Amino acid sequence: MSSKKSTTDKNRQFLNKKATYEYEILERFEAGVVLQGSEIKAIRAGRVNLKECYVKVLNGEVYLINMHITHLSTANRYNRPAETRDRKLLLHKKQIKKLHDKVAKDGISIVVVKLYFNDRNLVKVTIALARGKKLHDKREALKQKTLSREAQKEMKNMRQGY
After folding, report:
1. What range defines the domain where residue 6 resides?
2. CA dist 157 to 38, 132, 151, Å?
3. pTM of the predicted model, to two decimals?
4. C-alpha distance from residue 29 to each of 11, 32, 90, 125, 148 (Å)
5. What is the pLDDT of residues 30-62, one digit of tens each?
6. Could you say which DSSP state residue 47 is in?
7. pLDDT for res 71
8. Residue 158 maps to a domain
9. Average pLDDT over residues 148-152
10. Span 124-146, mean pLDDT?
11. Using an 8 Å Cβ cutoff, are 33 and 89 in contact?
12. 39, 103, 124, 155: which has the fewest C-beta neighbours closer than 10 Å?
């Protein structure tokens, strides 16, 4: 039974689609997240929202801010953490220094791209250094996406013999 559960957790990932639409991704990092037990269970149940979250470097440590993890009804109501509390990310010192320098000097943002379970059933988050897109860049990206979707649709119809 446990092997079945681990295979579903491996495939379980939560994407922040808004991040790739709003920002141009420059460099990605993988980080661990410090969570409590009830939060892990809620993430496994799919009760996580990444839309409004971002990453901030404070006092030489990296924090995930405003990630919303909804409580499970079975969790102890007296020991529940706040749903949008700041969660510490686990990174190497060199990575933290690089993130801090890029944000301070170049005015680049750090955004959350996805949250997932790795092969050892640990919750990991992919963060990225990103530069904000202009309105015309967003329109161009939507146009390219629409064109590629139409091309794939035509190829599918050609294969089916229509």
Report:
1. 2-133
2. 47, 37, 10
3. 0.74
4. 19, 10, 11, 8, 28
5. 999 999 888 888 898 889 998 888 899 999 999
6. -
7. 83
8. no
9. 90
10. 86
11. yes
12. 155
Can you give the pLDDT at residue 11? 64
Q: The domain spanning residue 94 has which CATH number?
A: 2.40.280.10
Q: Which residue has the higher pLDDT, 74 or 93?
A: 93
Q: Which long-range contacts (CB under 8 A, 24 or more apart) does 51-60 make?
A: 51/16, 51/18, 53/16, 53/112, 54/109, 54/110, 54/111, 54/112, 55/89, 55/99, 55/110, 55/111, 55/112, 55/127, 56/110, 57/96, 57/99, 57/100, 57/103, 57/110, 60/96, 60/100
Number of domains the chain is built from:
1
DSSP states along 5-33: HHHHHHH-EEE-HHHHHHEEEEEEEEEEE
Amino acid (one-letter) located at 53: C
64 vs 2, 12, 23, 95, CA distance in Å? 30, 20, 18, 15
Supply φ then ψ for residue 111, to 5 degrees. -120, 160
Beta bridge partners, 62, equal 57, 89
Q: Which residue has the tokens 């202009």?
A: 134
